[in-house]
Write a structure and sequence with these properties.
Radius of gyration: 17 Å
Number of strands: 0
Oligomer: single chain
Helix content: over 70%
Structural class: mainly alpha
Length: 75
């Protein structure tokens, strides 16, 4: 019964989050599920991820340090 309560509570809170917050929560949950042994990625995948990150920065899709601190203060 307790597990159902936790799932229900999680669903309720999750639905109140913005898409960006939802993504952060999902990534955090994924981090709990990862093993201690890091998985290696290919150079191609690494370069792809770098290009995607650079594109986000170029498009202004990032948070400044002050913005991040302000967001963290609300947690």
């Amino acid at each position: 019964m307790k597990n159902q309560s936790i799932n229900s509570e999680l669903t309720t809170y999750f639905s109140l989050l913005t898409p960006e917050q939802k993504n952060s929560v999902v990534e955090m949950i994924k981090s709990f599920l990862k093993t201690d042994e890091p998985k290696r990625i290919s150079k191609t995948q690494y370069n792809k991820e770098l290009e995607e990150a650079e594109k986000r920065v170029t498009e202004g899709k990032y948070y400044t340090e002050k913005e991040a601190e302000k967001m963290l203060s609300k947690w």
